[in-house]
Write a structure and sequence with these properties.
Blueprint: H1 6-18, H2 21-28, H3 32-46, E1 51-54, E2 57-60, H4 62-90, E3 94-100, H5 102-109, H6 113-119, E4 123-129, E5 143-147, E6 155-163, E7 165-169, H7 171-177, E8 191-194, E9 200-204, E10 207-211, E11 217-219, H8 222-230, E12 235-239, E13 248-250, E14 259-266, H9 273-286, E15 290-291
Parallel strand pairs: 3-4, 3-5, 6-15, 8-11, 8-12
Antiparallel strand pairs: 1-2, 5-14, 6-14, 7-12, 7-13, 9-10
Helix pairs in contact: 1-2, 1-3, 1-4
Length: 293
């Protein structure tokens, strides 16, 4: 028996189901002459006739009926095999490398990350905590979460939420040192700063005040600042929700600028299932306006 093409089996099944070559040609867009030729080549390869062709259509002989039954099953299995591969390729899996600012990770991502791991069990995460500017291709990073304005034409910057900030102190610190009434009063206090937020710009109604104090402690991590504030070491600028943890808001009448939080990925990686799933998940879980973890 000569080599038989799966396509020829498919055309045979289509013609048998349609009942005539002309009807099969209408359904497939393939000319009658080509369909007839392929059926002839199939019968020659098998060494037997499968159907009788006439003006009223086609009629399967006993051998054709058996072949039709098995041919249908074969095509169904072939489609199932293709679908299983496509489904596997579309399912998020493999290693996903993340670069996240440490404070963004601890405040926003870490509390909800188990949900992602549970939802996508075949994805492994490699998380690097860093505030530094990165080259996503050079550093092998698939997704980055960064606060502030993004100016990079090579990446897609997907807005996730807006980070709100405020000044806070412990009740003990304010009892010892008093409460500042204006931004300029801060120069008389021990200040704890996330260094990337300096200078501090305040707005009250139409008045804007910018100060650049010399902090008693400066660090690149809000969590470190928050711990010092809790210990009564001074007044610190924190993500606004820190007030829920027993700290006292300071200068509430003065507003500090908010900052956008963006999810970044290189343009040609947005279609990767793991990248796409994480970007969508972060947008749904964190993207609810102003972040107040």
């Amino acid at each position: 028996m000569d080599k038989v093409s799966l396509d020829d089996i498919r055309w045979f099944v289509v013609v048998a189901q349609a009942g005539s070559l002309s009807r099969a040609a209408e359904l497939t867009g393939i000319p009658v002459s080509r369909l007839s030729r392929r059926l002839t080549e199939l019968e020659q390869a098998l060494g037997t006739k499968l159907m009788d062709r006439g003006k009223k259509g086609v009629r399967l002989n006993p051998m054709g009926e058996r072949f039709f039954e098995h041919g249908q099953h074969m095509l169904q299995q072939a489609h199932a095999a293709l679908a299983s591969v496509q489904e596997k390729l579309a399912q998020p899996s493999g290693l996903l490398r993340l670069s996240v600012a440490g404070d963004v990770y601890h405040y926003l991502l870490a509390p909800i990350l188990p949900d992602y791991l549970s939802t996508y069990p075949e994805v492994q995460l490699d998380i690097q905590l860093s505030h530094h500017k990165i080259g996503m291709i050079q550093d092998g990073v698939d997704i980055a979460l960064r606060a502030g304005t993004i100016d990079n034409d090579d990446v897609v910057a997907r807005s996730v939420t807006t980070l709100a900030f405020g000044l806070f102190a412990s009740p003990e610190y304010l009892a010892r040192h008093g409460t500042p009434r204006t931004p300029h009063d801060l120069y008389q206090h021990q200040l704890l700063a996330q260094s990337l937020t300096l200078p501090w710009r305040f707005q009250h109604q139409q008045q804007t005040v910018s100060i650049k104090p010399l902090p008693r402690v400066a660090t690149n991590d809000f969590l470190a600042v928050e711990k010092l504030v809790h210990q009564g070491a001074g007044i610190g600028l924190l993500l606004s929700a820190a007030s829920a943890s027993g700290l006292v808001p300071v200068l509430q009448d003065w507003q500090l600028p908010s900052a956008p939080l963006s999810l970044l990925y290189y343009k040609n990686r947005g279609a990767m299932p793991a990248v796409r799933s994480f970007a969508q998940w972060v947008s749904e879980k964190i993207g609810s306006g102003v972040a107040t973890p």
